[in-house]
Amino acid sequence: MRLEQISVALIITMVVALPGCQGENQTGLQSRSQGATVKGGDHRTGGYDAVENWWRPAPDHVGPWTWGQVSGLAVDNPDRIIVAIWGDRNAQGEEREGGSNYVVVVDRNGNIVENWSQWDAIFNKPHQVYISPYDPERHVWIVERGGGRGVNMQILKFTNDGSELVMRLVDPNHPTSRAEARANPNPGPFTYGDPAVLAFLPDGSFLLGDGYWNSRIVKYNADGEYLMEWGELGNGPGQFDLIHGVAVDRDHRVYVGDRTNNRIQIFSENGEFIDEWLDISDPVGVFIDENEWVWVISATLNRILKYSRDGELQYYWGAYGGTRGGFPGGLSRPHQL
């Protein structure tokens, strides 16, 4: 769940997010069925090639070490991939004193080219990383779950190079347990209950999936001012139980991964319920590509699923690779597209 999970997260992002990959994948499948007979194979990596030993050690890893959990990443360009890590560990798996290596940037060869160590004090569990596709300055957003080292649950917006923190949404009096959060049915606009995910709209407004405990979608304007929210705990339309994936299509329809309820719910950008796709096991990530295909991560199945906008399953790939040394391209609870 450490070094292997880093490789998994990066493979998924390149497979799903980079232009052109989808067509290649489908063509590869067609050639197997329509062209020359190919014997054997189990298609465990979906027709994509995994790059072994892609990830490189951090420059300060001079003694025994291992990575903490890798929870998210964003691709700024092919030579600048921003990765969020729950710190690194010593040989016994214990956190280093003071924490280190929470946000790093790697190039296409897996070399660490930046380390945002100047911000280590405000991170404990950075959860997801984003760059809005509508932002010409390509600010970097990070959802921080808090939960230790005096770090609060918060939404952070940085300049692209990480030199400046330009927005911070936080209530230092946030709940410290799920029971406490769910005892308050009307939390404030910045009183988060283990926030999880973000999505962006063309006008600069953004949506927060809040998340593990609060079971709501919160909408803010481009300046971080509260606009509205929808959702509550439950399993009916417009209710949620652990929001862990949000994406917006070109018609501003909002797709929400309702994780414990094993479904995707679809809304207007102002929260009107439109549709639901049922029987999707543990949907922890949702991504809509440039061709409007909807990609979903099933963490329990260790699988990447491709749907049409109407909810029809087109294709899937993925196999668990976390035991007995794993295998290149094997997945172990993938987390962000």
Write the topology of this structure:
Elements: H1 3-17, H2 21-34, E1 66-67, E2 70-77, E3 80-85, E4 88-89, E5 103-106, E6 112-115, E7 126-130, E8 140-144, E9 154-158, E10 165-170, H3 178-182, E11 195-200, E12 206-210, E13 216-220, E14 226-230, E15 232-233, E16 239-240, E17 243-248, E18 254-258, E19 263-267, E20 273-278, E21 283-288, E22 294-298, E23 303-307, E24 313-317
Parallel strand pairs: 15-16
Antiparallel strand pairs: 1-4, 2-3, 3-5, 5-6, 7-8, 8-9, 9-10, 11-12, 12-13, 13-14, 17-18, 18-19, 19-20, 21-22, 22-23, 23-24
Tell me what you see in this structure.
By secondary structure, this protein is mainly β. It has one domain (3-31, 42-317): Neuraminidase (6 Propeller), CATH 2.120.10. It contains three helices and 24 strands. The protein has helices spanning 3-17, 21-34, 178-182, and strands at 66-67, 70-77, 80-85, 88-89, 103-106, 112-115, 126-130, 140-144, 154-158, 165-170, 195-200, 206-210, 216-220, 226-230, 232-233, 239-240, 243-248, 254-258, 263-267, 273-278, 283-288, 294-298, 303-307, 313-317. A four-stranded antiparallel beta sheet has the order 2-3-5-6, covered by helices on one side. It has a four-stranded antiparallel beta sheet with strand order 7-8-9-10, with no helix packed on it. The chain has a four-stranded antiparallel beta sheet with strand order 11-12-13-14, with no helix packed on it. β22 and β23 (303-307) form a beta hairpin. The protein starts with a helix and ends in a 20-residue tail after the last strand. The relative contact order is 0.13.
